[in-house]
Amino acid sequence: MKPPKFEYYRPNTVDTALSLLEESGFDGKIIAGGQSLVPIMNMRLASPECLIDINQLHELDFIEADDDKVKIGTLTRQSRIEISDLIKNNIGLLHEAVPFIGHVQTRNRGTFGGSLVHADPTAEIPLALMASGGTVHIASADETREVQIEDFFVTYLTTDVMPTELLTEVHIPIWKGRVGFAFDEISRRHGDFAIVASACQLTLDDHNKISNVRLVLGGVEAVPLLVEGANEIMIGEELSDSLLNKVADIVTGVVDPESDLHASADYRRHLAAVYTKRILQTAYNRARR
Length: 289
Fold this sequence. Notes:
Elements: E1 7-9, H1 14-24, E2 28-31, H2 37-42, E3 50-53, E4 63-65, E5 69-73, H3 78-83, H4 85-90, H5 92-97, H6 104-109, H7 112-118, H8 124-132, E6 135-139, E7 144-148, E8 153-155, E9 158-159, E10 166-173, E11 178-186, E12 196-204, E13 210-218, E14 225-226, H9 228-234, H10 241-254, H11 265-288
Parallel strand pairs: 1-3, 2-3
Antiparallel strand pairs: 4-5, 5-10, 6-7, 6-10, 8-9, 11-12, 12-13, 13-14
Helix pairs in contact: 9-10, 10-11
GO molecular function, one term: oxidoreductase activity
Domain FAD-binding PCMH-type: 1-177
Enzyme class: oxidoreductase
């Protein structure tokens, strides 16, 4: 199928793009990589009256860093993040997660901001960002606002970005000290959407006890799930088989997956516990080294 007719705009500045969004309201959609929007339009699941192509907004294509954080522009291609030494050296979890996204062709066109705004609960970038922490910067014609990543995802395929707003950049904190991280997922085939995905970042003190940890699961809720109860019981503890089992039990109790043709809810719940143990152990071992 092909999408219904629409008007097409290609602004050269952010201000022009925001003005177009203001004028179009609910009838307009931003397009950049088009990896998510175009298939949805072709299936007639979305029928915007106008598309606003932001590929000429080169000011939104950047990766920068200072002492405390890395800044990534919304238009930055996923493939650029994949090969960036700045990302590899400062936000290792994101560097590890990006190669799981689709295939090379997908990452060459797909953008960092597009993945976040699409908000698929199994997507790799939202999970990695939730595990790293940080803030999302959103602009409209009237103001710019900053949203904590924990408050950004609202429900399935829905974020805090309003129809007249544009995600412009994301700030990700650089964790200091003895940092460990891990990302893993299971899918039917490489490049398919994950059945269950998992991300973790933690720090250890000088006695190998966990001083900070963020465990996140995807594919088990309508949004990436920050497992706060599990995170709390790990603080001040060394990782052990007993602790891993306790965390897995918490995960099994709090996740609420749905069944579909790819996996049953019970199977997803089982995978969530298995992958929780796996990535926690990997992250912990990396931090010790």
